[in-house]
Specification:
- The chain is of the alpha/beta class.
- α1 links the parallel β1 and β2.
- It starts with a strand and ends in a 5-residue tail after the last helix.
Length: 203
């Protein structure tokens, strides 16, 4: 499976020695071809701003009625959404911090989850507008088991991506890393390295 445009998101606070960063790089290399365009966003290094009152006021104002200040308040969100819309494949490195996702990744989600832009409501309920994309979630943890009772990251990300219309979500579990043997770690790396050849069954 060779991606046309990949959006790589890294959220680990560690720039060196990060399991999730190492595996996102491997996944991108496996999924890329000669014509692939790669956009890398390091959320830990340049975390999106938190949603505030000015952002909410601008978001709930119809586009044609927004002031210059309101447009400026949404400019960062607009840029992040444009990146997301342009990508057909997402590779998201997700270290589990205190049983859930890093604050920088949550801030990114809050910036890109916008009614009438990435999802909409109707009399039939919410509808995601970001269809036709595949997301790879590389979940890394020291001791928390992916999809275990203490994992509040994986299920949340599946739900929010599905809410936005991205229902092809594939999970690579690099969990309980400190307890894995070197053979186990190597097997996970080989699994990631083979993504471009065979893909990965949705987890």
């Amino acid at each position: 499976m060779i991606a046309r445009t990949i959006l790589q998101l890294d959220a680990s606070a560690r720039s060196e020695g990060s399991v999730s960063r190492d595996l996102t790089r491997r996944a991108v290399a496996a999924l890329s071809g000669p014509e692939t365009e790669l956009v890398v966003r390091d959320l830990a290094a340049t975390a999106p701003a938190f949603v505030d009152e000015a952002w909410i006021g601008a978001n709930f104002t119809p586009d044609e009625a927004r002031t210059a200040e309101q447009r400026e308040a949404l400019a960062r969100s607009d840029a992040l959404i444009a990146e997301l819309k342009a990508a057909d494949t997402l590779v998201i490195g997700v270290p589990i911090y205190n049983f859930t996702i890093p604050a920088s990744l949550k801030a990114w989600i809050d910036q890109i989850a916008r009614a009438r832009v990435t999802f909409e409501y109707s009399d039939k309920g919410p509808k995601g507008l970001l269809t036709g994309k595949t997301a790879y979630l590389i979940i890394a943890s020291g001791g928390v088991a992916v999809d275990g009772e203490a994992d509040f990251a994986t299920g949340y990300l599946r739900h929010v991506l599905g809410f936005l219309g991205i229902d092809d979500v594939r999970v690579i579990a690099a969990d309980k890393w400190m307890f894995r043997s070197e053979d186990d770690k190597a097997a996970i790396e080989r699994q990631v390295d083979s993504l471009g050849a065979a893909g990965l069954a949705a987890a």
